[in-house]
């Protein structure tokens, strides 16, 4: 039951309509529907094993759907791959290129597989991904980040209208991730539709305009990223001294719920930062200044207040009303 | 619409850059001198023994084989093989032609005869077994199949490149063994007559069809048959490479089949339906030199047809599977 929450504008580049896939006797993809429009970055969010990669493989005709239809720029991907895939650049899982060829030879290889890509175009994409220094070296000498960039160069070669990236930040360092984000944003601003999968909510939040959330082969929700995240009441972490008095004051308020740390799931980084005098509440974050004032007036020292970003798991709990992911 | 030529160029480029073909050349360059040396020692020994009189040597061979026919310890199948051998040697002797005239050309002819059913197929597997499964092992198949090119075109270009390299391997085997053995035995010998056309029935040889051909012509006929065998083996290995995901598994499957073939050739004369297996039909050049077929009822045209059917079926399976299959990992 997909809930459409926000309509973007612009022409639809990729349309996925009621796609299902049965492998063996199991439906591993069960009704996936969404559209991706030009100029937008579309996130595909779900835990590992939810069916993200299987769906992506269906988008590029590596796997044939059992039911449903996938069209790119109006062409059916499975029935007319020669036309449809012309508009698609993709990296499925890792950027696997021929390690015994140089970067340049790899690009030449893929250039020969699509119309209208000449040497000048190859030089252009090499420039775009800033690989010009090492492009004539064997790929076996490249770092993971360079292979990632070569993969993107390969995907951009045919001037696609849709770019599909599967977990693009895997294996990149923080600097590389930041560069990649800016790079993808630039591409989208130029009118390209970008489809990005990830299992990290924060990454989707930072990068995407709209998002589809997938779990166990079903799309749970499609909508604007901000709306989706905003529907969650955030957690607030308090560090108080004296602890018991502070805790009591918080517990007395009707608009604050004390959370049991054993029952909620938190990022490891948050847990690591929790001292003995810490507690977590579920509340509207606009109440923070008021509550701080109350605590201080009562003589409780507020050592720290942190808003904790909701995790993907929290989002799932909300969307599935208690059904946990596994 | 993508033309096939750039795709074939891609595949050839990958085979070359992967250095598979160089490895094959290297194997030949290392192994052929070893065989040449062994052959040289044989020639030296018989020269000492028979004072360079090849007639004496052949006569001795005939006598040895005839003597062994009287022994009870030798199985009946071997005896009939030897009877045929004796009749052929006698024919050479009667017509005053040395079947083992030492020369680079003779060495090449004998080397090719011996390598057709195992050695050359192994060289071919070095390329064929890796063509599709190699792309799956490394994951590059995903890049290859997400381009706007129909899958049959991708497979067809791989197959075409393979057949080109198969031809190149057969040619290089010939050239390398001729050049290396020629250094030792001399480069002459293209016009030496070789007898062909022995009709074998039971343990007698029908000599009525036997005629002499110059060795160069014999080599051409032999080359054609070896090329045919090589193409069939290549297409089979190619199919296995489509079906099996890892290159290692793909090589093992084909190796097992080929080795089973040599074992069966030596023992399967009682099991006559084994003649429909491709592996026992690979010794096509034996029909040319008059070696008895491993199983009763096999002939040159029979083997050609059996191999053609195996090749056709493997091409059909390769395309059917490759164009339909989901690439799951």
Automatic annotation (TrEMBL), chain A:
Keyword annotations from UniProtKB, A to Z: ATP-binding, Nucleotide-binding, Transport
GO molecular function ontology, one term from the record: ATP hydrolysis activity
Residue ranges constituting the ABC transporter domain according to the UniProt record: 14-241
Pfam families per the UniProt record, alphabetical: ABC_tran
InterPro entries reported for this sequence: AAA+_ATPase (IPR003593), ABC_transporter-like_ATP-bd (IPR003439), ABC_transporter-like_CS (IPR017871), P-loop_NTPase (IPR027417)
SUPFAM superfamilies, per database record: P-loop containing nucleoside triphosphate hydrolases (SSF52540)
Top-level taxon of the source organism: Bacteria
Family recorded in the similarity comment: Belongs to the ABC transporter superfamily.
Protein name as catalogued: ABC transporter ATP-binding protein
Organism: Paenibacillus agri
UniProtKB/TrEMBL annotation, chain B:
Organism: Paenibacillus agri
Record flagged with keyword Transmembrane: yes
PANTHER family the UniProt entry points to: BACITRACIN TRANSPORT PERMEASE PROTEIN BCRB, INTEGRAL MEMBRANE PROTEIN-RELATED
Gene Ontology MF terms in the entry: ABC-type transporter activity
Protein name: ABC transporter permease
GO cellular component, one term: plasma membrane
UniProt keywords, alphabetically: Membrane, Transmembrane, Transmembrane helix
Source species, domain of life: Bacteria
Spans through the membrane: 21-40, 116-134, 155-180, 225-244, 251-278, 298-322
């Amino acid at each position: 039951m997909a809930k459409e929450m926000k309509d973007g504008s612009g022409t639809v580049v990729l349309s996925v309509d009621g796609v299902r896939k049965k492998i063996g006797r199991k439906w591993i993809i069960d009704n996936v529907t969404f559209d991706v429009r030009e100029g937008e970055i579309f996130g595909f969010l779900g835990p590992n094993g939810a069916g993200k990669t299987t769906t992506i493989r269906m988008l590029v005709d590596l796997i044939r759907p059992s039911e449903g239809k996938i069209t790119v720029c109006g062409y059916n991907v499975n029935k007319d791959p020669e036309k449809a895939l012309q508009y698609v650049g993709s990296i499925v899982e890792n950027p696997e290129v021929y390690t015994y060829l140089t970067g340049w030879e790899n690009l030449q290889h893929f250039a020969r597989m699509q119309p209208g890509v000449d040497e000048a175009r190859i030089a252009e994409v090499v420039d775009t991904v800033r690989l010009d220094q090492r492009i004539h070296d064997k790929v076996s000498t490249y770092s993971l980040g360079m292979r990632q960039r070569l993969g993107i160069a390969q995907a951009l070669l045919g001037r696609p209208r849709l770019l599909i990236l599967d977990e693009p930040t895997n294996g990149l360092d923080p600097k590389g991730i930041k560069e990649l984000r800016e790079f993808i944003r630039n591409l989208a601003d130029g009118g390209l539709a970008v489809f990005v999968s990830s299992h990290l909510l924060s990454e989707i939040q930072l990068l995407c305009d709209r998002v589809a959330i997938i779990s166990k082969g079903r799309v749970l929700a499609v909508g604007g990223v901000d709306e989706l995240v905003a529907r969650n009441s955030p957690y607030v972490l308090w560090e108080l001294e004296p602890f018991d008095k502070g805790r009591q004051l918080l517990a007395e308020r009707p608009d604050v719920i004390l959370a049991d740390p054993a029952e909620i799931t938190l990022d490891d980084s948050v847990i690591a930062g929790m001292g003995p005098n810490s507690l977590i509440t579920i509340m509207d974050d606009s109440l923070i200044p008021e509550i701080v004032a109350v605590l201080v007036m009562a003589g409780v020292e507020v050592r720290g207040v942190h808003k904790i970003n909701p995790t993907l798991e929290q989002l799932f709990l909300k969307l599935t009303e208690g059904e946990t992911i596994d | 619409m993508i033309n096939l030529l750039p795709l074939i160029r891609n595949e050839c480029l990958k085979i070359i850059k992967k250095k598979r073909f160089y490895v094959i050349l290297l194997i030949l360059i290392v192994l052929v001198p070893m065989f040449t040396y062994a052959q040289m020692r044989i020639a030296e020994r018989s020269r000492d023994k028979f004072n360079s009189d090849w007639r004496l040597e052949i006569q001795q061979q005939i006598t040895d084989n005839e003597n062994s026919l009287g022994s009870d310890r030798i199985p009946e199948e071997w005896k009939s093989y030897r009877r045929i051998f004796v009749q052929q040697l006698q024919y050479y002797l009667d017509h005053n032609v040395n079947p083992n005239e030492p020369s680079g050309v003779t060495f090449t002819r004998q080397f090719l005869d011996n390598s057709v059913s195992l050695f050359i197929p192994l060289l071919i597997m070095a390329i064929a077994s890796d063509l599709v499964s190699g792309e799956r092992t490394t994951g590059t198949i995903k890049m290859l199949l997400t381009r706007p090119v129909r899958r049959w075109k991708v497979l067809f270009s791989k197959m075409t490149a393979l057949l080109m390299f198969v031809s190149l391997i057969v040619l290089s085997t010939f050239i390398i063994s001729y050049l290396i053995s020629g250094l030792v035995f001399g480069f002459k010998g293209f016009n030496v007559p070789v007898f062909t056309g022995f009709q074998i029935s039971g343990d007698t040889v029908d000599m009525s069809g036997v005629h002499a051909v110059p060795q160069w012509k014999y080599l051409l006929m032999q080359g054609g048959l070896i090329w045919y065998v090589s193409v069939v083996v290549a297409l089979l290995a190619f199919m296995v490479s489509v079906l099996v995901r890892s290159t290692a598994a793909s090589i093992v499957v084909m190796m097992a089949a080929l080795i089973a073939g040599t074992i069966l050739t030596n023992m399967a004369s009682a099991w006559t339906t084994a003649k429909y297996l491709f592996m026992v039909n690979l010794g096509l050049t034996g029909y040319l030199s008059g070696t008895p077929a491993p199983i009763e009822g096999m002939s040159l045209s029979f083997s050609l047809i059996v191999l053609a059917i195996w090749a056709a079926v493997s091409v059909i399976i390769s395309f059917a599977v490759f164009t339909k299959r989901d690439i799951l990992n």
